[in-house]
Amino acid sequence: MKISYYISLLVIAILCLGCYTKDNVKQAEKAFITYYVDANAGDDSNRGTGPDQAFASIKKVNSLTLSAGTHVLFKSGTSYSGQLKPKGLGKAGNPIIISKYGGEDRPKINGEGKHKAAVHLYNMAYVELRDLEITNSGAERENGRRGVIVEAENCGECKHIILDNLFIHDVNGSLVKSKGGGSAILWRNHGDKYLTKFDSLIIQNCHLKDCARNGINARGYTRRDNWHPSTNVIIRNNLLEGIPGDGIVPIGTDGALIEYNVIRDCPDILSHAEAAAGIWPWSADNTLIQFNEVSGHTAKWDGQGFDSDWNCINTTIQYNYSHDNYGGFLLICNKGNTINTPSNVGTKNTIVRYNISVNDGIRPYQTERRGWFSPCMHISGPVENNYIHHNVFVFTKKESADIDRTFIQMDNWGGPWANKTLVANNHMKFIEPYRMFYGESKQTYCIDNTFETSMMDLNSSTEIPFWAKDYMNDYDENWKEKMIEVFFKNDEEMKSILNR
């Protein structure tokens, strides 16, 4: 019994090093190799180790077991049909790199809608995917169709996975979230035999265009009685265009960083049953969302630029620019009928500061759920400890008299209302009157906000509550300068508003 026990521990330890097996370790000891792939002039009978000896197909690449330090380079401007599903493991300092050679144009991987993903990285660690064009469109939309899937299953900790400078476009997944949806990029960690997580998963410098339903989303461990969050997840400097659903959604993470992304021009093609928003965590802790721009989100329900959602602790949304979103700037929400259960410990400690919201909440038609509903901020309990301060809100004239003119709408989602919400030191510029609805929320304090009192009836408090005093001592005096530098260098009007 003792021998079998120790053998089991050894197997788990090896897996936790990043999905390594004995064969993979032997492969990693080999000399570094560069393989070349050229669909036009290559041949799969070649050695593949030089441009004049290039392979011809991704099928050949998929047949290889790649070792640490191996490069697989596709000829610039060439095109490949099918699914790229490499295998092998890199190691620290010597990752596997899949990229291009011979020119500026990206090689194209076309899944043709015949595969769930055009590129599938399965149980790989220390791998970098760079400089490729990826598409996956079929004759009809299909549930779960993706451009890229990064998946780790029953293999411990998968380290150092980088997606960089990819152009992913025309992925026609389902528009229905409950049926699996679809997206440009999905990462997924799962397994009941060996608990599995990502560490140092980075998605950067990518252009995602006309992909449905979502841009970048995830699957992972989300219950608090089986909590194994991925760590060091970074999503930065990506451009998302033509994404009708959720833009960027980390799930099952701790300490995810989402920064310098742009989401724009989201087409209004979802049904009234579908809720979606720009950037938001779900079952994720200590998420930092900063220096992002979200505009033109047109989902028929929600449709905000930013959101702190279900089962999330310590979400910070700061230094962002939100504008022209149908549903508004911000959503903070949690569902009451599951609160204080293993699936939902609550949404707590959401910090929303140093953001700019311009012309948000402009949905030009009624929702099927609540009629004319598009408040600038929607806070739906049970949520606790919400700090909304030092933001700038610019409200332009609405196109019709019916469009919602609510600054903050507070309500509940099947349970208690919001508790402990501080709205302080915000500057609001109104063109026409607005309203604010507290409802049955508890301990909502509005302090030192700047606005024309004739434009809104705001029940102001005189003193910061005791539970917020320590937090409010943390203040960035240079936040306006940072916003001008990132977003408004050439916008004299916004400069003048910020400099007041």
UniProtKB/TrEMBL annotation:
<dbReference type="InterPro" id="IPR006626">
    <property type="entry name" value="PbH1"/>
</dbReference>
<dbReference type="Pfam" id="PF13229">
    <property type="entry name" value="Beta_helix"/>
</dbReference>
<dbReference type="InterPro" id="IPR011050">
    <property type="entry name" value="Pectin_lyase_fold/virulence"/>
</dbReference>
<dbReference type="InterPro" id="IPR012334">
    <property type="entry name" value="Pectin_lyas_fold"/>
</dbReference>
<protein>
    <submittedName>
        <fullName>Right-handed parallel beta-helix repeat-containing protein</fullName>
    </submittedName>
</protein>
<dbReference type="InterPro" id="IPR039448">
    <property type="entry name" value="Beta_helix"/>
</dbReference>
<feature type="domain" description="Right handed beta helix">
    <location>
        <begin position="200"/>
        <end position="350"/>
    </location>
</feature>
